[in-house]
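re the bet — no i am not wrong, look at it urself. input seq straight from the record:
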Amino acid sequence: MPITKGYQQLVAEAMALVTTYSVEEVRARLNEANVQIVDIRDVRELEREGTVPGCFNAPRGMLEFWVDPASPYFKPVFADESKEFILFCGAGWRSALAAKALQEMGMTNVAHIEGGWAAWVKQGAPVESMEVHKARRPSKH
Protein backbone atom coordinates (compact mmCIF):
# COMPACT_ATOMS: atom_id res chain seq x y z
CA MET A 1 0.00 0.00 0.00
CA PRO A 2 1.54 3.35 -0.99
CA ILE A 3 1.94 6.12 1.57
CA THR A 4 -0.40 8.94 0.54
CA LYS A 5 0.79 11.44 3.16
CA GLY A 6 4.39 11.23 4.33
CA TYR A 7 5.91 12.26 7.63
CA GLN A 8 7.12 15.57 6.21
CA GLN A 9 3.59 16.59 5.29
CA LEU A 10 2.26 15.44 8.67
CA VAL A 11 4.93 17.44 10.50
CA ALA A 12 4.32 20.53 8.32
CA GLU A 13 0.59 20.34 9.00
CA ALA A 14 1.22 20.01 12.74
CA MET A 15 3.68 22.92 12.74
CA ALA A 16 1.03 25.12 11.15
CA LEU A 17 -1.43 24.33 13.96
CA VAL A 18 0.61 24.28 17.17
CA THR A 19 2.36 26.97 19.16
CA THR A 20 6.10 26.79 18.63
CA TYR A 21 8.62 28.44 20.95
CA SER A 22 12.29 29.06 20.33
CA VAL A 23 14.88 27.68 22.74
CA GLU A 24 15.51 31.24 23.92
CA GLU A 25 11.82 31.80 24.71
CA VAL A 26 11.61 28.58 26.73
CA ARG A 27 14.87 29.22 28.56
CA ALA A 28 13.48 32.53 29.74
CA ARG A 29 10.46 30.72 31.19
CA LEU A 30 12.15 27.71 32.83
CA ASN A 31 11.46 28.88 36.38
CA GLU A 32 7.88 30.02 35.82
CA ALA A 33 5.42 28.10 38.00
CA ASN A 34 2.88 27.93 35.17
CA VAL A 35 5.24 26.16 32.73
CA GLN A 36 5.87 22.43 32.60
CA ILE A 37 8.49 21.24 30.12
CA VAL A 38 7.75 17.71 28.86
CA ASP A 39 10.46 15.53 27.32
CA ILE A 40 8.76 13.00 25.04
CA ARG A 41 11.93 11.26 23.91
CA ASP A 42 12.53 7.54 24.38
CA VAL A 43 14.18 6.42 27.62
CA ARG A 44 17.29 5.35 25.66
CA GLU A 45 17.70 8.92 24.41
CA LEU A 46 17.32 10.27 27.93
CA GLU A 47 19.88 7.89 29.42
CA ARG A 48 22.39 8.62 26.65
CA GLU A 49 21.95 12.39 26.32
CA GLY A 50 20.40 13.78 29.52
CA THR A 51 17.44 16.16 29.62
CA VAL A 52 16.19 19.64 30.52
CA PRO A 53 16.29 20.46 34.25
CA GLY A 54 12.86 20.28 35.85
CA CYS A 55 11.14 18.61 32.93
CA PHE A 56 8.64 15.77 33.14
CA ASN A 57 9.43 12.69 31.07
CA ALA A 58 6.47 11.29 29.10
CA PRO A 59 7.44 8.87 26.32
CA ARG A 60 5.75 9.70 23.02
CA GLY A 61 4.15 6.27 22.81
CA MET A 62 2.31 6.78 26.11
CA LEU A 63 1.57 10.52 25.99
CA GLU A 64 -2.12 10.38 25.02
CA PHE A 65 -2.73 7.72 27.67
CA TRP A 66 -0.90 9.71 30.36
CA VAL A 67 -2.87 12.89 29.54
CA ASP A 68 -6.37 11.38 29.49
CA PRO A 69 -8.00 11.25 32.97
CA ALA A 70 -10.14 8.30 31.79
CA SER A 71 -7.03 6.23 31.03
CA PRO A 72 -5.68 3.73 33.57
CA TYR A 73 -2.25 5.24 32.78
CA PHE A 74 -3.23 8.86 33.59
CA LYS A 75 -0.55 11.01 35.23
CA PRO A 76 -1.89 13.77 37.53
CA VAL A 77 0.77 16.25 36.40
CA PHE A 78 -1.32 16.75 33.25
CA ALA A 79 -4.45 17.70 35.23
CA ASP A 80 -3.07 21.13 36.13
CA GLU A 81 -4.89 23.43 33.71
CA SER A 82 -2.99 26.45 35.02
CA LYS A 83 0.18 25.15 33.38
CA GLU A 84 1.35 25.39 29.80
CA PHE A 85 2.89 22.09 28.72
CA ILE A 86 5.84 22.68 26.40
CA LEU A 87 6.90 19.47 24.68
CA PHE A 88 10.21 18.62 23.09
CA CYS A 89 11.79 15.67 21.31
CA GLY A 90 15.07 15.20 19.46
CA ALA A 91 14.49 17.53 16.49
CA GLY A 92 10.99 19.00 16.96
CA TRP A 93 9.12 16.61 14.67
CA ARG A 94 7.66 14.21 17.22
CA SER A 95 6.84 17.08 19.58
CA ALA A 96 4.93 18.93 16.84
CA LEU A 97 2.91 15.79 16.09
CA ALA A 98 2.38 15.17 19.81
CA ALA A 99 1.26 18.76 20.49
CA LYS A 100 -1.21 18.49 17.61
CA ALA A 101 -2.56 15.21 19.00
CA LEU A 102 -3.02 16.76 22.45
CA GLN A 103 -4.82 19.72 20.90
CA GLU A 104 -7.10 17.27 19.10
CA MET A 105 -7.81 15.73 22.53
CA GLY A 106 -8.93 19.15 23.76
CA MET A 107 -5.82 20.59 25.40
CA THR A 108 -5.36 24.28 24.68
CA ASN A 109 -2.34 24.74 26.94
CA VAL A 110 0.23 22.85 24.88
CA ALA A 111 3.15 23.94 22.70
CA HIS A 112 6.54 22.63 21.59
CA ILE A 113 10.18 23.72 21.22
CA GLU A 114 11.45 24.48 17.73
CA GLY A 115 14.38 22.22 16.89
CA GLY A 116 13.90 20.09 20.01
CA TRP A 117 16.78 18.71 22.04
CA ALA A 118 19.32 19.25 19.24
CA ALA A 119 18.58 23.00 19.19
CA TRP A 120 18.52 23.12 23.00
CA VAL A 121 22.01 21.64 23.27
CA LYS A 122 23.40 23.60 20.30
CA GLN A 123 22.33 26.86 21.92
CA GLY A 124 23.96 25.97 25.24
CA ALA A 125 20.74 25.76 27.23
CA PRO A 126 20.96 23.99 30.62
CA VAL A 127 21.02 20.20 30.67
CA GLU A 128 21.32 17.58 33.36
CA SER A 129 22.19 13.91 33.43
CA MET A 130 19.42 11.43 34.11
CA GLU A 131 21.04 10.55 37.44
CA VAL A 132 20.70 14.16 38.60
CA HIS A 133 17.24 14.46 37.04
CA LYS A 134 15.94 11.34 38.81
CA ALA A 135 17.34 12.53 42.14
CA ARG A 136 15.55 15.90 41.80
CA ARG A 137 12.27 14.64 40.33
CA PRO A 138 9.27 15.14 42.61
CA SER A 139 7.71 11.81 43.55
CA LYS A 140 4.10 12.87 42.83
CA HIS A 141 4.40 12.83 39.02
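see?? The chain has a mean pLDDT of 93. told u. also Residues 7-136 form a domain with the Oxidized Rhodanese; domain 1 fold (CATH 3.40.250.10). so pay up
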